[in-house]
C-alpha cells in the first residue's frame, strides 16, 4: 500500500497537514492508517494529542510509536469480524500516513514554515511544502500529497501472496490473500533493511523428532 512520511521541524505543521490530508482522502472514500513517531514518549488518552486529532479527522487506525511502547487507537467501526480482521492483519488501509520518521527510507513530504530553512532529512523528498505562519495548508498543497500517494499506488500495484505447504502451492483468494499479504507487510515493515520490498519470502519449517513420541 502507498506510504508517505510527513516530516519537518517541531511545530512546523506536520499534524495539521496529516489532518487535512486524512479529511480529503476519507471524503473520497479511502481508508487512511496513521502512524506517529514520538521519540520523546507520549501520554495515552490525552484528548488534545496529535494522534487524537488525526483520529478525529478520520484516520483509522491511529498508531503512536515511542519509547513508552506502542499505542493504537481505532474508531471501531464495522462488524466484530471486520475489527478482528484489522487486529490480525495490522495496518489495514488504502494508504498510510507517517508523521515523523525522517531517517526512514519511505518517500517524504517535507513541511517548512514560511521564513524557515527546510529540515535536512534522509531519503527521497517527493514534495516540499510551505506552511503559512498564520494559517492552514492550501488546497493545492493537500492535493500534492494525495497525488503523490496516487502515483505510488500506480507504481507498486497490489500485493500477491503465495503459500506453499510441503512443496505444494495452496491457492489464496480474496480474504485469505489479503490476510497473508497484510500480515507479512505489517510484521516486517519496521525491520531495518526490509523497507517496502518488491519481493518478500519467509520460510517456516517444523523440526520433528525422528524417534517420534516417546512410548509408555
The CATH architecture of the largest domain: 3-Layer(aba) Sandwich
Fourth CATH level, the homologous superfamily of the largest domain? P-loop containing nucleotide triphosphate hydrolases
Shape: elongated
| Rounded mean pLDDT score | 80
CATH fold group of the largest domain: Rossmann fold
Largest sheet, order of strands side by side? 4-3-2-5-1-6-7
The biggest beta sheet, please? 7 strands, mixed
Number of strands: 9
**Strand/helix succession:** EHEHEEHEEEHEEH
In which range does the helix fraction lie? 25-40%
Sheet-strand content, in percent, reads: 15-25%
Description of the molecule:
By secondary structure, the chain is an alpha/beta fold. It has two domains: 3-156, P-loop containing nucleotide triphosphate hydrolases (Rossmann fold); 158-216, no CATH class. 30% of the residues lie in helices and 22% in strands. The protein has helices at 14-27, 50-57, 80-89, 139-156, 175-188, and strands at 3-8, 32-38, 62-66, 69-73, 95-99, 108-113, 125-131, 163-165, 168-170. It has a seven-stranded mixed sheet with strand order 4-3-2-5-1-6-7, with helices on one face. A two-stranded antiparallel ribbon has the order 8-9. Helix 1 (14-27) runs parallel beside helix 2 (50-57) and helix 1 packs across helix 4. The protein is elongated. The model has no long low-confidence stretch (mean pLDDT 80).
Draw up the topology in text.
Layout: E1 3-8, H1 14-27, E2 32-38, H2 50-57, E3 62-66, E4 69-73, H3 80-89, E5 95-99, E6 108-113, E7 125-131, H4 139-156, E8 163-165, E9 168-170, H5 175-188
Parallel strand pairs: 1-5, 1-6, 2-3, 2-5, 6-7
Antiparallel strand pairs: 3-4, 8-9
Amino acid at each position: 500500500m502507498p506510504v508517505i512520511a510527513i516530516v519537518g521541524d517541531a511545530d512546523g505543521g506536520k499534524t495539521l497537514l496529516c489532518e487535512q490530508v486524512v479529511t480529503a482522502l476519507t471524503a473520497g472514500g479511502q481508508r487512511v492508517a496513521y502512524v506517529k513517531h514520538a521519540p520523546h514518549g507520549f501520554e495515552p488518552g490525552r484528548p488534545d494529542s496529535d494522534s487524537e486529532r488525526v483520529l478525529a479527522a478520520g484516520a483509522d487506525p491511529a498508531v503512536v510509536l515511542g519509547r513508552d511502547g506502542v499505542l493504537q487507537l481505532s474508531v471501531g467501526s464495522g462488524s466484530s469480524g471486520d475489527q478482528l480482521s484489522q487486529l490480525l492483519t495490522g495496518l489495514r488501509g488504502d494508504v498510510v500516513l507517517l508523521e515523523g520518521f525522517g531517517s526512514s527510507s519511505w518517500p517524504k513530504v517535507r513541511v517548512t514554515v514560511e521564513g524557515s530553512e527546510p529540515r535536512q532529512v534522509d531519503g527521497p523528498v517527493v514534495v516540499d511544502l510551505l506552511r503559512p505562519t498564520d494559517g492552514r495548508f492550501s488546497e493545492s498543497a493537500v492535493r500534492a500529497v494525495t497525488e503523490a500517494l496516487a502515483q505510488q499506488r500506480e507504481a507498486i500495484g497490489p500485493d500477491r501472496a503465495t503459500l506453499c505447504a510441503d512443496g505444494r502451492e495452496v491457492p489464496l483468494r480474496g480474504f485469505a490473500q489479503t490476510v497473508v499479504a497484510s500480515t507479512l507487510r505489517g510484521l516486517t515493515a519496521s525491520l531495518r533493511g526490509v523497507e517496502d520490498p518488491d519481493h518478500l519470502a519467509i520460510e517456516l519449517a517444523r523440526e520433528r523428532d525422528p524417534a517420534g513420541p516417546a512410548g509408555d
